[in-house]
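Researcher: Quick one. two chains, 442 residues in total.
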Amino acid sequence: MKSHFDEQLLYECYECARCTGSCPAALAVEGFNPRNYLLTCLRMGLDAVVSDEKLWCCTTCHVCEDRCPQMLDVTDLLMSLMNEAARRGFIPDKVRAGSQMVLHTGRVVLVSKRASEMREKLGLGPLPEIPVEEVEGILEKTGLAGLLG
Amino acid sequence: MRYALFLGCLIPVKYPGFESSTRAVAEALGIELVDMPFSCCPAPTLIKLVHYPSWLALAARNLALAEQEGLDILTLCNGCTNTLKEANLVLKNEAALRKNVNDLLRPYAKEFKGEIRVRHLLDVLCEDVGLEALRKQARKKYGFRIACHYGCHFYRPPRIMYPDRLSPSKSLVPTQMEEILSAAGLTTVQYSRRLLCCGSALGTKVDLEAANEITREKLFHMAERRAEAIAVACPSCFEQFDRGQMMINRKHDLDYAMPVLFISQLLGLVLDVDWKRLGFDQNRVKVETLLGG
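Model:
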């Protein structure tokens, strides 16, 4: 967490809740509350936050930091918390599946037969080959492969 | 005007019509696009949230590839733009991180040097092609009313995406899309909540139903200004609005039918490129109703 977000900055929060008032995920998901995550980190530490699956509802739109009168990078805070959650083994299913796709194929979506047909119809060439071994090799060394299990 | 074309994952596989229309528009405007074996950017809404160092390393590989050819990268997707611009900036500024990724890239004969720029198609159109050229080359007129949706990762956070263009409050309001479409002779409308997120990343990660509620909020305000079409510059936003309208109509018994057009599809219409290359059969909300006769 420390590498991406300076915990000392949490003390700069006014508790004005502008982050939460402008947050699209808070609009749609009851219980997703950036301001509460921030305050919980301060008062109870990370453990209370990283186990909350709703943390992953953040769309990373960065409007919170755009509106924050203290210019706190709230999205970066949430990203750091998600990184920490992942380190502890908590990754939502869809996020794990997408990450594994990237690890093993270099793409986040499966290349279907339909894709090739659509491309041909549009007069496009075949998809450029991605050197998958290279992508996998890099992501094994960085630790993503181990993290995803 | 020569760039390394960064297609990303969604466009070449799910929406190749955006690729073919981009290529057609590029040809018409004298832009040369070079294909390279790029991988996933990787997405700021996925790998970055799981493991930042992996995100940075894979982004560095993509940047290094384009550097080898000495080409700036041209992106078509906001996620790719966000990742590659941020990684480029971070790696240019932080020597320790740069050394880490270069140690990882060395076995593959690649090195991040920090010698290129990453540009979204919108910025290439505004700055390199120029609005005047668009004005001159526009051949066909269309009168439908367009609501522009930028998508968050195109310009936020501004301190990373547009550090040279910050307002006194360190913020930024994007206007490129309206400028481009107006120059091309199209009609754009302003609407409330123009800069609200489409919701896509919430849907792809956790909860699609909830994501659609964000989309519904946007659609309401677009429709309120009698928008007849939605312009996007990102395949994720496209999917969210295009598929979203179907799902929202069914769930809430509504009848939204605003075709969603990728920026190159819109420009392709105006520049009168080969219709078959615009790929409109991939748009779920049918575009033909807009075009009349």
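Chain B has two domains: 2-119, 130-291.
Researcher: Thanks, that's what I needed.
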